[in-house]
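Why Aspartyl/glutamyl-tRNA(Asn/Gln) amidotransferase subunit B? Reviewers of the renewal asked for a concrete example.
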Amino acid sequence: MKYEAVIGLEIHCELKTKTKIFCGCETGFGGDQNTHVCPVCLGLPGVLPTINKRVVEFGIKAGLATNCTINKFSKFDRKNYYYPDLPKNWQTSQYDLPIAEHGWVDIDVEGEKKRVRLTRIHMEEDAGKLVHSGNTIKDSASSNVDYNRTGVPLLEIVSEPDMHTAEEARTYMEKIKAIMEYIDVSNCRMEEGNLRADVNVSIRPVGSKELGTRTEMKNINSFKSLVDAIDYEIDRQTEVLEDGGHIVQETRTWDPNRGITLSMRSKEDAHDYRYMPEPDLPPIVTTDEQIEAYRKELPELPDARRERLEKEYGLSDYDAGVITASRPMAEYFDEVVAGGADAKLAANWIMGELAKHLNAENKTIVDSPVEPARLAAMIQMITKGTISSKIAKTVFEEMWTSKDAPEEIVKAKGLVQITDTKAIEEIVDKVIADNPKPVEDYKGGNKKAIGALVGQVMKQSKGKANPQMVNQLLAQKLG
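Here is what the prediction returned.
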């Protein structure tokens, strides 16, 4: 029997506020353990929380950016469960009246557009962090708890089970990450736990409409782990069913070192958490005027920006998609084009040489030593014919390690392209005289033989001859 996977994601997005959701403790990553804490976030008796207004603003903006309906009346609830990283023994979250619900985002997978529906977006506080003695909770003899993260504001973005492959899930999470970065509500640094996902996976016979029993994998914090964990879990569940077994509804953990999921505990349903309205926090009432004011503050979002780059500059759907996948890259591109560079060439250089150098040094585009203005100036030199694309790579290498302008590098190294027809003609004549075999092959009908002659001309001109002029002169002289 063939099976189809059904996948839903609960993405936890840590918000970039300066203080926690219900107290004034700082949210910065990397502080000494248990130093960013106070009686409120530690849940000591007699304390009263107060809502961070910025968290509500970010929740509404995230809802608007993902086509959600904003609930003008929403409230907080207590989600009751016991775990060592939860000092109050309940998590202040939202249950029946979240800040936003019924949204959607569009994703592109293998050239096909697909809509993934969002069930809801709700605000909640993060739990603390267990620091295990081993690699995972399953192979640890002991665990310590750091409460610095307790009370850090989160948005939980819950999708409908609309995805069927690991690739769709990865693309969806990348899209959510891009949107959160664009609207500037989160740093989305997965290595710091700013963005992580709980993944629900079930399988069912192809053609069936009934959902299978699902398992949940907690706290997946990289795109590679997301894909690997889903693929493994699909294979595991398929094997269980094909062997005549049944899937147990449970929470599992992903062990990246062994490449397998491991059972942690049986999966709870909503009623197991005994949700109750939070008595210490008033409901959140938002007016239409406030919602519209937040809508006006939203920047140009990835889909709109992608469409603009295609229409305004004629970029391909693929190129526009890559450029707009992150806000810093999209802004870098806009600055290069504003500096006078041809848009298509700008996209090629950003996706090509710049990306290659950034990846080699594990840098982001924000850390690029080549500023947009200098890249724009270099691209203009290619367009004017001052340098060839090949020479430009040498110039770019210099720009990467120095602050010199491309014009200065070209002048200092004598890299100006030769466009003098007479000078190129002299080299072409010499190459034709010195290479009778490819000349004979070309005249005998092997048009590809001209490539060897072009290579010789470029070599003798030290790469400075204009390649277009070289091809034209050779074609003329060889008839």
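The chain has three domains: 3-290, 300-413, 421-477. This is the kind of structural detail the renewal will allow us to pursue systematically.
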